[in-house]
Amino acid sequence: MEPSDWWRTAAIYQVYPRSFADGNGDGVGDLAGIRARLPYLAELGVDAVWFNPWYPSPMADGGYDVADYRDVDPVFGTLEEAEKLIAEARDLGIRTVVDIVPNHVSDRHPWFRDALAAGPGSPERQLFHFREGRGEDGELPPNDWQSEFGGDAWTRIDDGHWYLHLFAAAQPDLNWDHPRVRSEHESILRFWFDRGAAGVRIDSAGLLAKDPVLPEVDPGAGVHPYVDRDDLHPIYRSWRAVADSYQPARVLIGEIWVPDTERFARYLRPDELHTAFNFDFLARPWDAEALRESVDTTLAAHAPVGAPATWVLCNHDVTRTATRYGRTDTRFDFAAKAFGIPTDRALGLRRARAAALLSLALPGSVYLYQGEELGLPEVEDLPLDRLQDPMHARSGGTDPGRDGCRVPLPWSGTEPPYGFGAGESWLPQPADWAGLTVEAQQRDPESMLALYRAALRIRRAGIGGDFAWLPAAPGVLAFERGDGFACVVNLSAAGAQPPAHRELLLASAPLRDGWLPPDTAVWLRRW
Ligand code: NOJ
């Protein structure tokens, strides 16, 4: 495989900069902290790092409200430090993927400020979706669209007009029919590619294009007014031309929540995006049939377009795997999030270990979200007055929000801040994380960190070749890759017998008389 094809098989680690490592001791993670910890990532054995947004931002949505796409927020550091970080990571063999947020800007972005100042009907307002309201005095929003975070997707301003925001009110949506919006984003891509970024992760990539009439959502219409519209494809074709103009070519990774796998795969045609996150797999319950079906539909949808599949278990938006798998309902569903769901943590961790071996053995690229390699649980008892996620606030307080998976990493020591920085961290860490620190797990050959390191090492040394299911008992997933490598995952309540093999490469839990106990996965070399 050409080195330029790295993205086809890469293990990509997601860093949430606020919560990775705090270099200056202000309680918030930063680029200095990340730079100091790059050797950790190299030792872990990942091929690339995707950084959540580090741009200047009022942080109304964790930095996904960008005020300047060509700089770094002072809380994280400077642009110069970002350039150094990219170069230092590259020296360690780690590529950098930056987060691009094209659907919306911050309400403090100069374009939006100018639009507010310029008034109704002005060219400045054309860059956004401003409309008059309905009702006698325009007191009703222009249509029924709902924010992804709950509540109306419209906010009214002093002159009586309304603007569209599919997320928080501080995130006005851009008008992608405007040529300036398009040229600006291509220039932003070049800005980061010129600084050595190997690729970009494209935020909310399925939402940019809107029906210009802004009609109400009609489930019977067949076409959604703002999700997965056909007009998105020309946008990504021109982005691909930008990415391909670099040497080596840069990589485009889409955040696309589109349930129809055939529609999803259209974004991955050879002249569009390279890959996109597999949210179907992420949302599946811990159930052999459900996961098997997801693998099958994923591979079947990707094959015709020649794109590699991706495998994702969690990220900064969803409940941590080690917690989700310890519940009665092991699916992920934004709508089902609630406080106080009973969780068996030991069971969740056991399954998360098995799921790690499953996802790392499947064909394609794989994402791991910081802390996943430590088996961190979702933190579900954060003080309510410390929660920052607009998803919590906009739900009227019923949705716990996404802060619970964004708690700063524990590095060392026996009490908060566990080597994350000095003093109190922006979200408090639990008192019982001493055993979960990197330091503690490095000493323990049975730890989650040891499992991930071993698995990534074996994967790098070569898990390749064609994928094929092997015969297996009900509730058991077994497949081979190429000649001789096999992965067996036992999701049943009974023991499972592995196929004949000459070497047990790795096990997520000890075998019993050669059999896999429930919720255990193994990697084998077959005869
Ligand atoms: C998806 C991001 O992953 C999420 O964190 C963010 O809130 C929304 N897009 C809006 O940018």
Task: Explain what you see.
The strands form 3 sheets. Strands 9-8-7-3-2-1-11-10 form an 8-stranded parallel beta sheet. The chain has 14 helices and 16 strands. The chain folds into 3 domains: 6-101 and 278-442, Glycosidases (TIM Barrel, Alpha-Beta Barrel); 110-164, Oligo-1,6-glucosidase, Domain 2 (Oligo-1,6-glucosidase, domain 2); 465-525, Golgi alpha-mannosidase II (Immunoglobulin-like), CATH 2.60.40. By secondary structure, the protein is α/β, with parallel strands linked by helices. The protein has helices at 31-36, 38-44, 79-91, 110-118, 179-194, 232-244, 261-266, 279-283, 288-302, 321-324, 345-361, 390-394, 438-442, 448-462, and strands at 11-15, 48-51, 95-100, 130-131, 154-156, 162-164, 199-202, 251-254, 275-276, 310-312, 365-369, 467-469, 476-481, 485-490, 501-507, 520-526. The two termini are 26 Å apart. The mean pLDDT is 97. Bound molecules: 1-deoxynojirimycin. 1-deoxynojirimycin binds at residues 61, 64, 101, 167, 203-204, 255, 316-317.
